[in-house]
Design goal:
The protein is α/β, with parallel strands linked by helices and 375 residues long. Helix content is 41%, strand content 21%. Bound molecules: iron/sulfur cluster (SF4).
Length: 375
């Protein structure tokens, strides 16, 4: 089936990073074995093809080679010439043997959780790896034969200066990565980081400084050949992440594993965020979803607007009406003039025609606000 993606969540990490709100727990060999077994059963049940596979987490590479090999063997039925197959890896748990295994089983894209190239910042973020390990992970990945590599970076950490962020970006460009994702540090509910902020242990960076960092990124990376194609994402030619583009087009996706989300047949389901519960339910032949909602056509159209506007190309009106059955300007008539007036979005101009709309530079800074207005 065209444009259907598969996401598999591996919820194990060496330790919890203080800023992280994803569902993850400490590695447990017995649980990991049982989890991979139920995942293989779910994979077997999937009929038809998928256009992209993304194994994320958590930290998929905390699984040892034997378990990773087992999981990847189950996915063999989907792999082929035209599939994008990504696996997330953290520098401290990536080695030559795992890289060889990935290549052998059809993985053709790596996403490395680099986050920073400086030890001080990595320590602040509570990461398990050092700057040297981050550089080594990139080096061994390239030498193993991977050329489609993303690195994740975080900016806006307390105490960080614009000059320091500029230097991080320079190292990222020199690293050989073909794709760079830059995320500003956020203080999520129920994390150790927000407690540290609320008790005054850390003083978040001024929003103005964070905006300067992001503004610089928007100018600098495209100048180095990394096209900006979504709020946080930059890629060299032909290296955009097809898996994520599928989300931003609001296409279908299957999510396997604890806390994973699926969107199929007009229904969005979110699996239980508890690995033991997930295993129990799947083994008992029950649906592991904790919640399920059927979206109305209008909700679905608005959601498409909210995700698609995050892309650099923005929303093409004809594409939108073909995809959703709604006229974009009619659907968003109440908020559209307000967003334009505030300078957050602009109409595209082509030969006096207006084929669509997109975020302005200011709009990229406030993309979450724009998305929630369109919802
Ligand atoms: S390694 Fe990633 S998923 Fe795991 S706790 Fe840290 S940020 Fe979260």
């Amino acid at each position: 089936m065209r444009d259907r993606s598969l996401y598999i969540h591996i919820p194990f990490c060496r330790r919890k990073c203080p800023y992280c709100s994803f569902y993850s727990i400490s590695y447990d060999e017995g649980l990991a074995r049982a989890y991979v077994d139920v995942l293989l059963g779910k994979i077997e049940d999937i009929e038809g093809s998928v256009s992209t596979i993304y194994i994320g987490g958590g930290t998929p590479t905390v699984l040892h080679e034997g378990l990773l090999g087992k999981l990847l063997s189950g996915l063999k039925k989907f792999t082929g010439d035209n599939i994008e197959f990504t696996i997330e890896a953290n520098p401290e748990s990536l080695d030559r043997e795992k890289l060889g295994l990935f290549l052998d089983r059809g993985v053709n894209r790596l996403s490395i959780g680099t986050q920073s190239f400086t030890d001080e910042k990595l320590q602040k973020l509570g990461r398990s790896h050092t700057a040297e390990e981050a550089a080594k992970a990139m080096d061994i990945s390239r030498k193993a034969g991977f050329n489609n590599i993303n690195i994740d970076l975080i900016f806006g950490v307390w105490g960080e200066s614009v000059a320091e962020w500029k230097s991080e970006l320079k190292k990222a460009v020199q690293s050989g990565a073909r794709h760079i994702s830059c995320y500003s540090l956020t203080y999520e509910e129920n994390t150790a980081l927000i407690s540290a902020k609320n008790t005054g242990k850390i003083l978040p960076l001024d929003e103005e400084v964070v905006a300067q960092m992001y503004g610089y990124t928007l100018d600098y990376l495209p100048g180095q050949g990394f096209g900006h194609y979504e709020v946080s994402n930059f890629a060299k030619k032909s290296h955009r992440c097809r898996h994520n583009l599928n989300y931003w087009d609001n296409n279908l996706y299957i999510g396997l594993g604890a806390s994973a989300v699926s969107y199929l047949d007009g229904i969005r389901k979110t699996n239980v965020s508890d690995i033991k519960e997930y295993i129990k339910k799947v083994k008992a032949g029950e649906d592991p979803a904790a919640s399920s909602e059927k979206l109305s056509d209008i909700d679905r159209a608005k959601e498409t607007a909210a995700v698609k506007i995050r892309t650099k190309e923005g929303i093409d009106f004809r594409w939108f009406s073909e995809k959703t059955g709604f006229d974009f300007c009619g659907l968003e008539k109440d908020v559209l003039p307000v967003l334009v007036e505030k300078g957050l979005i602009e109409y595209k101009k082509e030969n006096k025609h207006c084929p669509g709309t997109q975020l302005t530079k200011k709009g990229f800074l406030f993309s979450d606000t724009v998305s929630s207005e369109l919802l």
